[in-house]
User: Which sequence fits this backbone?
């Protein structure tokens, strides 16, 4: 729905996860009969979760642990472990930095140069354990990191920045030809991030096997305040999924849609799937686990801008295990544990036996649903009142 803003401008309303609610189906399914697996670029994941390429989340050890549970971690090819022989020392420095100086500490940490051999060592250590892993690169570092990822046969290659478009103009550098990169890359390629139908459709036309959806929704991201840019995730995923469906109808090739950011609990993940996501990318929820690299802290994945803060450090750690986060049993009442179990049960109640069927489930716009009848929870600070 469009609304008139001023005399000459019409803008659409946009919705976030808290603005909608899923509608139960007239037919429900036994949760044991629900399949939550998904496929990305020919890779089958038993759990449709990707760990974001954030240095507070993913290192080689975390990637192995997540792979063993049926999901997939994305190593940050531009990250600290590709710049330092002992990245844990830098992670500790970021975690221990006083709040007033953490922006400068993070900025200084990422000034060290990229070292190809360190990235290769990370990938080799994951592969030596028989685990699956993906690697991300920014458009600027794409070619160097892609070569290493191909040589070591990672499962997916991710080209990612705050916003990526198939048409980039520059008077100072030669823009990266994404279609050429995808065509030359031996690995299935995911590109992002985007939030609009037009941008997503053009990214799909490059030949990418998947697109990432989300600008600014993550717990550690400050893009929406610093740059004023972003679209609430429900609207963004719906628009990108519409591009996916139209692209499939015209070409016969189905491109995966991956919701990236803004999901705090199982209900958010289920809503993302109903909006059209084939998988979700999580950062800060994973940062709360014992296996995460950041010692209970998380910060933005992008290399800090030399003149602007492009993310902040957030404290996430609760000390739960990665298995408990994904499969439970839940020890809290806020829906932030047993995320896979919550997705499975939500799909069962919505009558969906698989991810694509869940994308056909109904939802309603309901901004007040989180508050309806929950006064006691709010007053006591429990459950949905937290």
Assistant:
């Amino acid at each position: 729905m469009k609304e008139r803003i001023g005399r000459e401008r019409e803008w659409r309303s946009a919705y976030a996860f808290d603005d909608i609610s899923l509608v139960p189906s007239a037919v429900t399914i036994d949760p044991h009969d629900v399949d939550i697996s998904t496929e990305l670029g020919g890779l089958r994941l038993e759990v449709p979760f990707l760990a974001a390429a954030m240095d507070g989340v993913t290192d080689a050890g975390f990637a192995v642990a997540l792979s063993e549970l049926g999901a997939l971690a994305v190593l940050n090819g531009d990250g600290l472990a590709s710049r330092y022989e002992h990245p844990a020392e830098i992670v500790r420095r970021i975690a221990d930095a006083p709040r007033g100086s953490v922006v400068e500490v993070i900025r200084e940490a990422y000034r060290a140069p990229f070292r190809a051999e360190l990235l290769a060592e990370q990938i080799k250590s994951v592969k030596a354990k028989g685990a699956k892993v993906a690697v991300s690169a920014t458009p600027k570092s794409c070619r160097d990191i892609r070569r290493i990822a191909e040589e070591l046969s990672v499962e997916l290659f991710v080209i990612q920045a705050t916003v990526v478009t198939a048409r980039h103009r520059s008077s100072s550098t030669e823009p990266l030809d994404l279609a050429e990169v995808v065509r030359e890359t031996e690995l299935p390629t995911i590109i992002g991030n985007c939030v609009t139908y037009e941008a997503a459709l053009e990214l799909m036309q490059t030949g990418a096997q998947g697109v990432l959806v989300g600008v600014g929704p993550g717990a550690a991201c400050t893009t929406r305040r610093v740059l004023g840019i972003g679209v609430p995730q429900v609207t963004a995923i719906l628009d990108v999924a519409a591009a996916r469906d139209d692209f499939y109808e015209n070409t016969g090739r189905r491109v995966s849609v991956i919701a990236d950011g803004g999901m705090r609990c199982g209900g958010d993940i289920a809503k993302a799937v109903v909006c059209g996501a084939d998988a979700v990318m999580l950062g800060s929820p994973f940062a709360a686990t014992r296996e995460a690299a950041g010692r209970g802290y998380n910060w933005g994945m992008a290399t800090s801008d030399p003149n602007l803060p492009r993310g902040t450090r957030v404290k996430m750690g609760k000390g739960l295990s990665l298995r408990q986060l994904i499969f439970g049993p839940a020890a809290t009442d806020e829906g932030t544990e047993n995320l896979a179990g919550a997705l499975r049960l939500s799909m069962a109640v919505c009558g969906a036996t698989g991810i694509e069927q869940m994308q056909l489930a109904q939802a309603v716009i309901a901004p007040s649903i989180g508050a309806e009848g929950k006064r006691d929870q709010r007053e006591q600070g429990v459950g949905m009142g937290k």
The mean pLDDT is 92. The two ends are 31 Å apart (CA to CA).
